[in-house]
Each structure stands twice: as C-alpha cells, then as structure tokens.
Request: fold
Amino acid sequence: MMNLRSFIWISSTVVTAAAMGSACFADGPALVTIDRLQAAHRAETNAEQRYLAFAAKADDEGYKQAANLFRAVARAEQIMYTYHFDAIKDLGGIPEDVVAEQPTVASTKENLEKASNKTAADQLDADFTGYVKTARAEGNRQAAKVLEYARTVEAQNVRLFAAAAKNLEQMRGTPKGYFICGASGLVSTTLDNASCSGSDWEKVK
Reply:
C-alpha cells in the first residue's frame, strides 16, 4: 500500500483550499485528525481497486487461493474506508469524492511481494500509530478507534501476503475461503471470534 504520508496535505489559506477544488478541509480542533482520515480514505479506496485487479491476475494465472486472499483484503479495505468516511462526517468534515487510480498489475508473485513489502509496512504502521495518538490527543475517541482498526488490519494483511508469497505454489488448486470481520475489516483464515467484536464474520470464497 502507498505511504499515507504522501497523501497528507493541510491547507494554510482559504485561497489555496479553493484552488484545489475537490479537496475538503475542516476547521477547529479536529483539523489534523480529519485530514488524516481523508488520507486513509483515499489510500484504502485505491487499495481496494488494486487488490481486485491483483485478484483477477491471480485467477488468470491459476493461483485461486491468492485470488481469494486479494478479494478478502479488498473487502477489508472497503470496510475500513467506509468507517473513515463516516468518522470524517462525525467530526464535521466533508469526505472527499475519491476516484481510484488505475492500478499497475504485475505477476501474482510480484504483486504478493509488493503487497508484503516490509519497509512500506513498517512505515504504514508508524503512520497509523501517529494518527491514533493525534486523534486521542484531540479527544476524538471514535476516530482513534477506527484508525487503530486500520493499523491492526493492515499489519495482518501484510502477514497474510507474506505467507502467500513464501508458499506461492500452495496458492494453486482448490481454494479455501478467508473470513473478514465486519466490525473491523480483519482478515483471517479461521473464525477467530476473540478478534472480532460480536463475531460478525463474512466469508470470501
């Protein structure tokens, strides 16, 4: 996933904000948290489309289990960007109208390696950790909660992608499903009810 820092852009003047057209900014004590939620919303919207494209490629190459994993994570990204969309509105912001970028698709092996890149994953985890800290400092407990969900979910996604990349040939054959927690977007190979509030699981197969 792309580094969220590259998405954060805080306007210092009304003139600059107006010139951006589609960019949405907010005033008040929640300004930084809203901008970071906007960044997460943009990144996850793009990630959903990227993983769906990766899933189609995996299907074409016969890696049916890898395709299921990409589809499950795409669904997780959708759950997370919906939470961030709602959190932006709850804080008085206007969610941006995001048009997903056209994803670059390589081989399934390369797509899995890119999705599990440790350097990018560590940076993303650090970014979300900072976002959660800021949201709490601003008194935005619900925003902090959904950002913490995102941090946890993204870390789990990287672990799943890394395991798939390491065992690529096992990704062929009859696919098994993945479970997605509707309350957080967490993807799991099993029904781990301890990790999902209300045991609200979906299955991608």
